[in-house]
Amino acid sequence: MPTLYVVATPIGNLEDITLRALRVLREVALIAAEDTRTARKLLARHDIHTPLTSFFEHSRLPKLDYLLQTLAENDVALISEAGMPGLSDPGYELIRAAIARGLPVVPIPGPSAITTALAVSGLPSDQFVYLGFLPRRPAERRRLLSTVAAEPRTLVAFEAPHRLLACLSDLAAILGEQRRLAVCRELTKAFEEVRRETVAEALAHFRETAPRGEFTLVIAGATAVGQATSLSYGDVAQMRERVASLVATGLRRQEAIKQVARETGLPRWEVYRLVTQ
Asked: According to the 3-state scheme, what is the secondary structure of the chain?
């Protein structure tokens, strides 16, 4: 039966690809790529001449039928711009459609920026929460960060260079300036850099040095309830200050009270009563 192969490709260094991936890319009838320019460089480097078609965010709907028709008779390989397809890229739609039609979907594992960053971050990697690309709009980003402020597991997120400073500012305001993180830049590429520091230190550095390249952020989880913001159960003044600081970042007052309730372990109604009395 024709098969959809989900093939991991290098996140930077073109040598980071498995022998099995190279064989599959040579043998399939068609390769669907998120970015054909990146794909052509990879295929040329390994002397692969399989036909190539694009499958990216704005082409996925019209291309979906074509790819499913091809899969009716031939094997197809799906590759993303970098790393494992289906993670924060439009390939997810093709995978779902193939599964819905009862077609075999076979993973060809390999590089991933998520696990690569975790491995070198120096932060706990036994459990983690993947946040994907952080929201572009500041209010949406702050809301997302507020939902994970008390999350004890390590957080992993992608961020664009032109939004990094705004992102770090929101991390400082919502998770706390002393929360530790690893800022991983250009992983496996010529200018690879991993900075292991506090949010405040990262913010100071990138205010002086313009962010360039692709960023993966690995953020320490909250190690204990309320530790990230040093709130104590009975310190009403600190709770009021914390609610005010969250509102200043753009959160609605109700959302700020919800977050403080999560951070302190108190019921939401109790936090509301204490900060509004």
From this structure: CCCEEEECECCCCCCCCCHHHHHHHHHCCEEEECCHHHHHHHHHHCCCCCCEEECCCCCHHHHHHHHHHHHCCCCEEEECCCECCCCCCCHHHHHHHHHHCCCCEEEECCCCHHHHHHHHHCCCCCCEEEEEECCCCHHHHHHHHHHCCCCCCEEEEEECHHHHHHHHHHHHHHCCCCCEEEEEECCCCCCCEEEEEEHHHHHHHHHHCCCCCCEEEEECCCCCCCCCCCCCCCCHHHHHHHHHHHHHCCCCHHHHHHHHHHHHCCCHHHHHHHHHC
Q: What is the pTM of this model?
A: 0.79
Between CA 167 and CA 135 the distance in angstroms is 9
**161: containing domain:** 114-219
Residue 196 CA: distances (Å) to CA of 27, 64, 180, 193 = 42, 42, 7, 10
Asked if 65 and 151 sit in the same domain, the reply is no
Give the domain-ending residue among 111, 137, 161.
111
Q: How far is CA 106 from CA 4, 7, 120, in A?
A: 6, 9, 28
pLDDT tens per residue, range 83-117: 999 888 888 899 999 999 999 999 999 999 999 99
Query: Tokens 């093939």 identify what position?
Result: 7
- Please report, for the domain that includes residue 97, its CATH number: 3.40.1010.10
